[in-house]
C-alpha cells in the first residue's frame, strides 16, 4: 500500500479540495499519512495569494525530499496553474497539475512512477470549466463545503480568476446531497465556501440558480447545527439573504464582507462593483436586523494611488462603522494584474505603517464588540482546542470563548453567559450556566 501525505497552503477552498483529493486516494487503496511519516507520494496544494508563494513551495519540496528522498512530489493549486514551468524547475518536483487536472490526479499520474522528465499537465485556465465538488473533514467540529469556484469580476489586484478560471457552481440539489452526508457525521458546523460565493448558480456559463436559493434549501438540512457563509461580496449580499439569515434556524449572525478600501476613488481604481455608501448600507441592514451580529471586513492598504488623505478616508470610514474585526492585507504587486501596471506606487514603508494602524484599529473593534456582548447568553460550539487547562470555542456570532477544560465539552454546543475578557483576549464564561444542550 503506497503512503501519501498532503500539504495545503492558502484558503478554505484549498483545504476543502485537499481533503476531497485525499479521500479519492483512500478510496483507491492508498494510505494517508502525516507529512513526516515517510510517504511515497507528496501532494502539495499551493496558493498564489500567499506572500512568497515560490519560496514556500520550494521549502516544502525540500522538506519533503529530506523526509523521503525517493518520494514522488506533485504540485497542484493556484500557483501551479499560474507558474507551471517555474515550478517544474524546482529540484525534486515530479509533476505539476493545473486547475483543470488536479481532481484527475490519480488517473493522470497513474502509478506515480518517477520519470526523467517532470510531468507538466496544466491546460490554459479557460479549460477549467467543470465544477468539482469538495468538502473538508479534517476535524469533527466544522467542515468547509465548496459550493462555487472561479470568478468573473476581474478586480485590478487579483490573480484568482487567472488561477481558478470563470465562475461556476455546484447545483443546489448536489450541495444538499453533500450537506446530508455531512449531517450524518459528527460535524456540527458547515462553512459555505467559494471564490465569489454570492455569484453561486452558474452552470456551464448559464445562471440556473441563485445563492439565495441555496441558502433557503440548505437551512432545512437536518443534522447540521450551524451554517456560516465564509465571505460574500457586499453587492451580492442582498436584503433577502440578510433577512433570511436573521430568521434562520441554522445560519449564524456572522458575516465576512470584503470592503478593500473605504475610499470611493480607490474602489473605482480597484474595479470593485460598489461604493462605500452601499457597504455602509449593508452593515446597517445587518445590524438593524441582528444587533448582535459579528461583521468581519477585508481591507487592502497601499493600493496604487492611495494617498495619505485617501487612506485616512478608509481609516475614518472603518472607525465609524459598526463592524467587529478587520483582516488587513498589505498590497503587493502580482504579475499579470492591471494594478501591477499602475503608477502612484505607495512606498513599502507607508504600506506597512498603514497596515499597522488598521491592525490596531481591528483589535479595538474586536474588544469593543466583545465588551458589548458581556453579560449576554450565546451558544458556544466547543472545539478540540485546549491550552493551559482551558477549552476554546466560538459563539454563533464568532466570539472566541474560553472555559475550564472538560473532555465532555469537545464538539458540544452549550448555552453560556459571557463573563469577562481574559488576558489572551478570549471571553471567559460563567460555568454554572452549562445547563442546556441544543441538539
Ligand atoms: S471578486 Fe475580485 S477579489 Fe474577489 S476573487 Fe473575484 S476578482 Fe478576485
Automatic annotation (TrEMBL):
All residue ranges annotated as the MTTase N-terminal domain in the record: 2-114
SMART domains: Elp3
CDD domains, sorted: Radical_SAM (cd01335)
Gene3D superfamilies: Methylthiotransferase, N-terminal domain (3.40.50.12160), tm_1862 like domain (3.80.30.20)
UniProt key word Zinc: no
Top-level taxon of origin: Bacteria
Keyword terms, alphabetized: 4Fe-4S, Iron, Iron-sulfur, Metal-binding, S-adenosyl-L-methionine, Transferase
Ranges of residues in domain Radical SAM core: 137-371
InterPro entries: Elp3/MiaA/NifB-like_rSAM, Methylthiotransferase, Methylthiotransferase_CS, Methylthiotransferase_N, Methylthiotransferase_N_sf, MiaB-like_bact, rSAM, rSAM_horseshoe
Stored SUPFAM superfamilies: Radical SAM enzymes
Entry keyword annotation includes Iron-sulfur: yes
Cofactor: [4Fe-4S] cluster
Annotated protein name in UniProt: tRNA (N(6)-L-threonylcarbamoyladenosine(37)-C(2))-methylthiotransferase MtaB
UniProt source species: Algoriphagus namhaensis
Gene name per UniProt: mtaB
